[in-house]
Design brief:
Blueprint: H1 6-13, H2 17-25, H3 32-45, E1 57-62, H4 71-86, E2 90-95, E3 109-113, H5 117-127, E4 131-134, E5 144-149, H6 151-164, E6 170-174, H7 181-197, E7 204-206, H8 214-222, E8 227-230, H9 236-246, E9 255-259, E10 273-276, H10 279-294, E11 304-306, E12 309-311
Parallel strand pairs: 1-2, 1-3, 3-4, 4-5, 5-11, 6-7, 6-8, 8-9, 9-10
Antiparallel strand pairs: 10-12
Helix pairs in contact: 1-2, 1-3, 4-10, 6-7
């Protein structure tokens, strides 16, 4: 059976392919008459959107070079693959440097994990496909929806856990110049929580791309910090660099909570108390949200926040009260 395309539907109903794409993907407003004529032509031609038994093909756009390198990216992409295949659909992984492949591959929607809002807007404008981004900004006016880990909740739980152990001088490591969505929201969450508590002085220390500065280690010791929140998925080298420059024992001298890295957090000495992203739920929610967008089930749609998973280990000390 000949494949039904946007162009063949456009020829049948007398509208442009871009108008057909907007109607079928629900990415912008169309008049009632336009929608009805496009949908009638699509049904008549047997467009697979209206087939209950057809598989859907999702394009997963990832940041070039991250497969096989980043622990975070591997876990997220693997869980997306398992969710998509488990749902009976198919996917193709496309590096963000080769998005022109979408000209040759007829995808039904896009899952974006390449963390570039401007490129995502351009991608949506060019291909007019349903799009869900993971751990990135949504843009509903452009038809971009998001599924993100709940950064505020994780930072608040970490802060509360430190306090429950008797800590009041709590610092945070921050990549102040980092434009990454997750890093910015973790930093914002800390500042908001400090404002809520009122009497606690914010203690924010910089961590740059070259590593942990020795000057900041000195500031941490000089400020009498007893508990440090490191909201990043540090590898073994970064953990060693941090503790080495601090020049103190964990947790005897300073307590530490970080973000989970499955290759290092559990195996460090001592094992690090962490918050880990729930990759399975992130993947599940992202795919289900994309399926709703594809089927134009817009009622009640919203961005989704997924709680972190807490792993209590040996890096937080209980202070004497």
């Amino acid at each position: 059976m000949k494949k039904v395309t946007m162009k063949s539907i456009a020829a049948a109903c007398g509208h442009s392919p871009s108008t057909v794409a907007r109607v079928l993907n629900g990415t912008s407003y169309s008049s009632k008459d336009t929608r009805e004529s496009v949908l009638a032509a699509a049904r008549k031609l047997g467009y697979r959107h209206f087939s209950r038994h057809s598989k859907l093909l999702w394009g997963v756009i990832f940041e070039n070079g991250n497969i096989g390198i980043g622990n975070y990216d591997n876990l997220l992409l693997n869980n997306l693959l398992m969710k998509i295949q488990g749902s009976g659909d198919e996917c193709i992984f496309i590096p963000d440097t080769q998005m022109h492949l979408l000209d040759r591959i007829s995808c039904d929607g896009i899952l974006s994990v390449f963390y570039n809002p401007e490129k995502e807007k351009k991608l949506l404008a060019e291909y007019s496909l349903p799009m869900v981004v993971i751990n990135e900004y949504s843009l509903h006016s452009e038809g971009i929806w998001s599924v993100t880990s709940d950064e505020y909740d994780a930072v608040y739980r970490a802060f509360s856990f430190f306090q429950s152990k008797g800590h009041s001088k709590i610092g945070i490591l921050s990549r102040l110049k980092d434009e990454n969505y997750s890093m910015k929201h973790r930093d914002m969450a800390y500042r908001e929580i400090i404002r809520r508590y009122g009497r606690i002085q914010p203690r924010i220390f910089s961590w740059d791309s070259d590593g942990f500065p020795s000057s900041e280690a000195k500031n941490i010791r000089g400020n009498g910090i007893t508990a440090l929140l490191a909201p990043m998925e540090m590898n073994m080298g970064q953990l060693s660099d941090l503790t080495g420059k601090l020049g103190c024992r964990i947790p005897e001298d300073i307590s530490l909570i970080a973000w989970e890295n499955s290759e290092s957090s559990l195996f460090f000495h001592p094992p690090v108390t962490t918050f880990s992203q729930d990759y399975k739920t992130l993947a599940h929610e992202a795919v289900e949200l994309l399926r709703k967008l594809y089927r134009r089930q817009f009622a009640g749609l919203c961005n989704i926040k997924v709680p972190y998973i807490f792993h209590e280990r040996k890096s937080v000390k209980t202070l004497l009260k």
